[in-house]
């Protein structure tokens, strides 16, 4: 089964992609825990230009539809997104426009060979 979730702004600008997992928490729940997280399904497609829609494949999941004020969030599918950023190079520029003294505690990066 599939459902369409409407959004007033384009959810793709937040990094949501096809095959991401979709969840929500009922806004009436205070002090929510992981037990309050409801799995809706996976993102199938996007459409619309205001309102915007996310088409979600719910499969055989049984849940109550989220309401307008519920918190909807997404996670990446670990079977598809197992790697880090992919590319050939990176360029980084650090700028501090403050007149106050500042200290950079740490900078890190991860490098892995993806092809030979």
Can you tell me about this structure?
- The chain has 116 residues and is mostly beta strands.
- It has a domain at 2-75.
- Helix content is 0%, strand content 28%.
- The chain has no helices and five strands.
- It has strands spanning 2-7, 21-25, 38-48, 52-57, 71-75.
- It has a five-stranded antiparallel β-sheet, with no helix packed on it.
Draw up the topology in text:
Elements: E1 2-7, E2 21-25, E3 38-48, E4 52-57, E5 71-75
Antiparallel strand pairs: 1-4, 2-3, 2-5, 3-4
Give the tags.
five-stranded antiparallel sheet; 116 residues; mainly beta
Shape: extended
Helix content: under 10%
Order of helices and strands: EEEEE
**Largest β-sheet summary:** 5 strands, antiparallel
Alpha-carbon distance between the two ends: 43 Å
Rg of Cα set: 19 Å
- The structure class reads mainly beta
Major sheet: arrangement of strands: 1-4-3-2-5
Q: Roughly what fraction of the amino acids lie in strands?
A: 25-35%
In short:
The protein has 116 residues and is mostly beta strands.
């Amino acid at each position: 089964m599939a459902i369409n979730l409407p959004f007033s702004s384009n959810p793709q600008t937040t990094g949501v992609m096809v095959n991401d997992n979709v969840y929500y928490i009922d806004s009436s729940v205070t002090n929510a825990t992981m037990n309050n997280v409801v799995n809706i399904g996976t993102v199938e497609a996007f459409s619309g230009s205001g309102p915007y829609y996310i088409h979600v494949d719910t499969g055989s999941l049984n849940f109550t539809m989220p309401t307008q004020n519920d918190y909807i969030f997404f996670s990446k599918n670990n079977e598809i997104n197992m790697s880090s950023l992919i590319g050939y190079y990176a360029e980084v520029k650090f700028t501090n426009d403050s007149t106050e003294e500042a200290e950079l505690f740490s900078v890190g990066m991860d490098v892995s060979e993806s092809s030979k």
